[in-house]
């Protein structure tokens, strides 16, 4: 049985209660009003305004160019399209890494101007001072470990993280540090399923997996990936629930043909 009703607003406390009740958390990304409204109405628990907007919406090769102002713009649209889901906003590159004071200032700006319910930060022990500063001000924080896209130039690859014992042990330490710092949940991206299972059992806050196996407390995907709208790459962990890109292509070609053949608009579609 669900720990919340279909109409009740999902909060950070609801997400924590879902872990305690053994109910999985369903999370997808959203960057605009129309998609947010569709996802929210379909029952998604969390809408993540991800800095992946830089890839799928703006066409950047990485998430690094995304700014705080861009995140706020997209978050405002998502919040306007949401009645039930918890909206979480990624803090973009260099908005929280410089010092805790800047991190709090940027997190506060995002929350005040977007109306979102929480922010998300990438990183382990290094970002704990920033997380403490933000949570002490009353702003909920979701953590993010494993493959952290803002560190892609340091990693040099998008391959699975924490396959070796040393990095796996460090990830567990980082997860516990994020919990202690005040995070209400943590994303585990592209780490071995057995490690994700171990982390999930070792902390009291929910884990949200992406390419991290089924034992996490919830799952997240980029909506454009699972809907078949973004075709630049096909990660192993993405299940495509639709091929909307093909349908859009077919629809547009039909429109072009009708216009060229003078079949659109019809008499009934004219004034």
Brief digest:
With 271 residues, the protein is an alpha/beta fold. The protein is built from 11 helices and 8 strands.
Helices and strands, with pairings:
Layout: H1 12-21, E1 25-29, H2 33-41, E2 46-49, H3 53-56, H4 68-80, E3 86-90, H5 100-114, E4 118-120, H6 128-136, E5 141-146, H7 152-155, H8 165-181, E6 185-189, H9 193-202, E7 207-210, E8 218-221, H10 223-226, H11 244-260
Parallel strand pairs: 1-2, 1-8, 2-3, 3-4, 4-5, 5-6, 6-7, 7-8
Class from helix and strand fractions: alpha/beta
Query: What average pLDDT do the residues reach?
Result: 95
Show unreliable segments: none
Report the strand count.
8
Largest sheet: 8 strands, parallel, barrel
Strand content: 5-15%
Instruction: Count every helix, treating DSSP H or I runs of 4 or more residues as helices.
Output: 11
CATH superfamily of the largest domain: Phosphoenolpyruvate-binding domains
- Major β-sheet strand ordering: 1-2-3-4-5-6-7-8
Name of the CATH first level of the largest domain: Alpha Beta
Query: What is the global morphology?
Result: globular
CATH architecture of the largest domain: Alpha-Beta Barrel
């Amino acid at each position: 049985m669900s720990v919340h009703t279909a109409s009740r607003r999902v909060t950070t406390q609801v997400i924590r209660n879902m872990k305690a009740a053994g109910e999985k958390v369903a999370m997808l990304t959203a960057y605009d009003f129309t998609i947010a409204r569709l996802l929210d109405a379909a029952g998604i628990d969390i809408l993540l305004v991800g800095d992946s907007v830089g890839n799928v919406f703006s066409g950047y090769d990485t998430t690094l160019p995304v700014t705080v102002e861009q995140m706020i713009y997209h978050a405002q649209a998502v919040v306007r399209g949401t009645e039930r889901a918890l909206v979480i906003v990624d803090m973009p590159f260099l908005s929280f890494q410089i010092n805790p004071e800047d991190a709090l200032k940027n997190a506060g700006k995002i929350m005040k101007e977007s109306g979102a319910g929480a922010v998300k930060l990438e990183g382990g022990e290094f970002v704990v001072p920033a997380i403490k500063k933000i949570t002490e001000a009353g702003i909920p924080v979701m953590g993010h470990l494993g493959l952290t896209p803002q560190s892609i130039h340091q990693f040099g690859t998008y391959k699975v993280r924490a396959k070796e014992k040393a990095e796996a042990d460090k990830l567990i330490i980082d997860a516990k540090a994020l919990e202690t710092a005040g995070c209400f949940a943590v994303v585990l991206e592209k780490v071995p399923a057995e490690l994700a299972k171990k982390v999930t059992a070792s902390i009291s806050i929910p884990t949200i997996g992406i390419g991290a196996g089924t034992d996490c407390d919830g799952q997240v995907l980029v909506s454009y990936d699972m809907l078949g709208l973004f075709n630049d790459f096909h990660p192993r962990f993405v299940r495509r629930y639709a091929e909307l890109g093909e349908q859009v292509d077919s629809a547009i070609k039909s429109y072009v043909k009708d216009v060229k053949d003078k079949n659109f608009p019809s008499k009934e579609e004219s004034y």
